[in-house]
Fold this protein.
Amino acid sequence: DAGVIQSPRHEVTEMGQEVTLRCKPISGHDYLFWYRQTMMRGLELLIYFNNNVPIDDSGMPEDRFSAKMPNASFSTLKIQPSEPRDSAVYFCASSLRGFNTGELFFGEGSRLTVL
Amino acid sequence: AQSVTQPDIHITVSEGASLELRCNYSYGATPYLFWYVQSPGQGLQLLLKYFSGDTLVQGIKGFEAEFKRSQSSFNLRKPSVHWSDAAEYFCAVGTAGGSYIPTFGRGTSLIVHP
């Protein structure tokens, strides 16, 4: 299997622009997680899905952030409008039967820089 | 709510020396505990995990960790460090059922000197 695939790997944009990050989980995995990593706050869970349904989005910082999972093989994290404080590395991870019973498989991340 | 503390931001060791990375957790019940490693520019990879049973768990790449309930700790160890072990190491705690919010520590950066 190719693992979790994220795109783009790097994104540089200007404040106010819309940013869309994409994730393809490992085939057959039923959980998908979006994390954000910064020096200041470490690794934060933003949202996770089970069988394409959002279960907990309490980590989403504000309404500018939205995430969707239209099918089992694709998810997006959108920031609109983007702000400099959104600069971070965004990770997507997937697992079978969830975090507590199995291993999370992480993508290589999308490094976002908002100028 | 559970929390994880990794008290060391950076650890420097010489190649071939032993390694211990500290992790303390706070959780009222028996936690599920994990160690992940992140190489530069990469995502996190699971090293090992503890759910129940033997408190000494073996992982990949020669790592092991010991769960000590009395100390609320889950320290990661390796008897002989290789230069390729230089990376960021994350301890994480999960809950058994209920609210499904995994928590990661802030990470410890391992520097290996030749």
About this structure: Chain A touches chain B at residues 4, 42-43, 45, 48, 55-56, 58, 91, 93, 98-100, 103-104, 106-109 (CB under 8 Å). The first strand of chain A starts at residue 5 and ends at 7.
